[in-house]
Write a structure and sequence with these properties.
This protein is of the alpha+beta class and 656 residues long. The protein is built from 10 helices and 37 strands. Keywords: Signal.
Length: 656
């Protein structure tokens, strides 16, 4: 880019200062600003914030984006202290990188009528690498307490003009006023898009002096000011993807770069451009195309495999076990052969290596790039490689396609981990057309509980409890087990922490057989499971997995409920009754059966005793689709509320 500009004889520039508010000008009256009318539950709020992004020219870099962010926040209570810590993400690619050119921050306290300022020092600022592409500058503002006003301002410089800084009008705390200003010379043409449901309050466009010249004269510029007032906080809740998908954020895409009376460079990518760039890149296509690069590792794995499904499943299991994921997402591999030798690597090292191995085995395999759930949706508005942070493998076996992510050692063949279930990814074939690939779980997340035992007259319950898990419930438990030194240690700790029941013995089956349910078998004893009340023995019929808290508590939710998979939970109890007690007609609970429209979710509860000495208790909860729309939110909320109320009911046995 720099050479391209230099050849056009661009020269002369200056930083046109924006109408930022003054740093450090805190008055006594600022501490009395009230947020009550906007949000009575806020832990902190933004009094005022200002941002600006200007495309400028420097002799050492060429065109750059100079970005300023200035924020003033009032901390209301201890839960708001975390807002005194802020992070500046900085993108890097090859020898080019974004840098922080200025940073300052302070906290302010009111003592009597006097405002006391405490400045942040260099000791409160440090850097860390988040991934191969992102580094972070982190800062902590000192001397924060309830009622403190904090303020920070920083400036960055970026050579990546294709990535004009986005602006987050809506965040986790409410804001009284937010302003963002862009200054774009006419040689750059950006498209702007606004996510979220809150509209821009004000938008003003005017000309400004860029200070830039070309061979044919002065280059004009356009200044645009965007403002919002009284912005409510975005409230995150369970079962959602990244909040970036739903908050009000304005972002920009560079369409083209053109010199007056000169050449034009088009930056608008098509998906074919993206595919070509990635396949030509040594860190992506180069790692996939060398079919013999992993021969020494792969040949022993394939020995004796006489069909395609065996080949694919063996290779998937091999990469799962052979390379430990270093918890770094990337679509670019360093070197897949090195990763196999060192037995560690990023997501691209592992999964591009898997694609390479599948192709070596004469299988039809290609990479699929995606954005993980916590990274937000990618590619919705335009092709942009920077929005994707992860890559997986797709293999065709017969007429069926399988998605594979070997970064997770706990998912069975064909089921991608939950972090990847994020709407859609993009296929990147070596030849042919790129296309969208739906990212979804192939397995329901399920758990079945089966108990057979005896209830004693003193209220103690003894018996065998068997739990079987599939899908993400199984992979989560396998991961928890792997986190302990041994199964004995895991269940001993669980026994110590769970004061409700005692585990006398345990057995785990299929822990390493990912294609089978993970089974746990216990001999348990629960003292005071039932209590004597007026000649009746009463108990709540749940050992574990009882719903006690409603995950949905918002008065309004404007984004989908995303479970990530179908969910099924079943429980079956067969309890021998103590001598002298019966499940009398006058104490019997009514059976429960309820469902949402079109049976999208269902709950049943049933108690029977055809044998007067044995009580059979059955319950089941099902969510029969992975995604519910915002208009279904209140139905789901009420559904959970009714389950909670139903599961509070006790079963009573009458003394004969």
């Amino acid at each position: 880019m720099k050479g391209f500009l230099t050849s056009l004889l661009l020269f002369g520039s200056f930083w046109a200062h924006a109408q930022d508010f003054s740093f450090g000008k805190i008055k006594k009256e600022d501490f009395a600003i009230d947020i009550g009318k906007l949000d009575t539950a806020a832990n902190a709020f933004v009094i005022r914030e200002y941002g600006s992004a200007q495309v400028n020219y420097t002799s050492h870099t060429g065109l750059v984006v100079e970005f300023v962010k200035h924020v003033r926040i009032k901390i209301l209570n201890k839960e708001g202290y975390n807002h005194a810590n802020f992070t500046i993400p900085l993108y890097k690619s090859g020898n080019d990188r974004e840098v922080v050119t200025e940073i300052k921050a302070a906290s302010y306290h009111l003592q009597g009528d006097k405002v006391i300022e405490t400045e942040m020092t260099k000791a409160n600022v440090f850097n860390e690498n988040s991934s191969e592409d992102i580094s972070l500058t982190k800062a902590a503002i000192p001397q924060v307490q309830e009622g403190t006003i904090i303020e920070y301002r920083y400036k960055t410089e970026s050579p990546f003009i294709f990535n004009l800084n986005s602006w987050e009008f809506q965040e986790e705390i409410p804001k009284l006023y937010s302003e963002y200003v862009t200054r774009i010379p006419e040689i750059c043409h950006y498209k702007s898009n606004l996510k979220g449901g809150i509209p821009i309050k004000g938008r003003k466009t005017e000309n400004y002096n860029t200070g830039l010249h070309s061979e044919v004269g002065e280059i004009l510029g356009e200044k645009t000011t965007y403002t919002m007032e009284n912005i409510p906080a975005f409230h995150s809740e369970d079962y959602m993807t990244s909040s970036k998908n739903f908050r009000s954020i304005i972002f920009f895409e560079l369409g083209r770069y053109s010199i007056p009376m000169g050449p034009t460079k088009d930056f608008s990518l098509t998906w074919e451009n993206v595919r070509e760039k990635l396949i030509a890149d040594e860190s992506f296509g180069g790692q996939v195309k060398r079919k013999g690069a992993l021969k020494e590792f792969i040949d022993p794995v394939l020995q004796g495999a006489n069909n395609d499904i065996t080949k694919a499943s063996r290779l998937y299991a091999y990469f799962q076990k052979q390379i430990k994921w270093n918890n770094k997402h990337s679509i670019y591999a360093k070197n897949v052969k090195d990763a196999l030798e060192k037995r560690t690597g990023n997501s691209a090292d592992i999964n591009l290596g898997l694609v390479n191995a599948l192709r070596y085995a004469q299988l039809e395999a290609i990479p699929v790039i995606l954005s993980t759930r916590d990274n937000g949706y990618a590619g919705l508005y335009a092709p942009a490689m920077s929005e994707f942070n992860h890559v997986i493998a797709q293999v065709k076996l017969g007429e069926e396609y399988y998605l594979l992510d070997a970064t997770s050692p706990y998912e069975p063949f064909g089921n991608i981990p939950l972090k990847c279930v994020n709407y859609q990814g993009r296929s990147i074939p070596l030849t042919g057309e790129s296309d969208w690939v739906k990212l979804e779980s192939k397995l329901p997340s399920s758990q079945s509980n089966f108990f057979v035992g005896e209830l004693m007259e003193n209220g103690t319950l003894k018996g065998k409890w068997v739990t079987s898990r599939n899908g993400y419930m199984a992979s989560r438990m396998r991961e928890r087990l792997q986190g302990s030194n041994s199964e004995e240690e895991f269940y001993e700790k669980w026994d110590e922490e769970n004061n409700r029941f005692k585990i006398n013995s345990f057995k785990v089956s299929n822990r390493d057989s990912l294609d089978k349910p993970l089974a746990e078998e216990f001999e348990i004893e629960i003292e005071n499971f039932a209590s004597l009340q007026n000649d009746q023995l009463a108990f709540n019929p749940y050992i574990d997995s009882k719903t006690t808290k409603n995950p949905f508590n918002l008065t309004e939710r404007n984004y989908p409920i995303d479970f990530g998979s179908l969910i099924q939970e079943e429980s079956y109890m067969e309890i021998k009754l103590p001598k002298g007690y019966t499940y009398a007609p006058e104490t019997k609970l009514k059976n429960i059966s309820m469902a949402l429209p079109e049976r999208a979710a269902r709950y049943i509860f049933k108690v029977s005793n055809s044998d007067p000495n044995v009580l059979l208790i059955e319950s089941a909860t099902q969510f029969n689709k992975p995604l519910f729309l915002p208009e279904e939110y209140f139905d789901l909320k009420e559904f959970f509320s009714r389950i909670i109320q139903a599961q509070k009911l006790d079963i009573s046995l009458k003394k004969i």
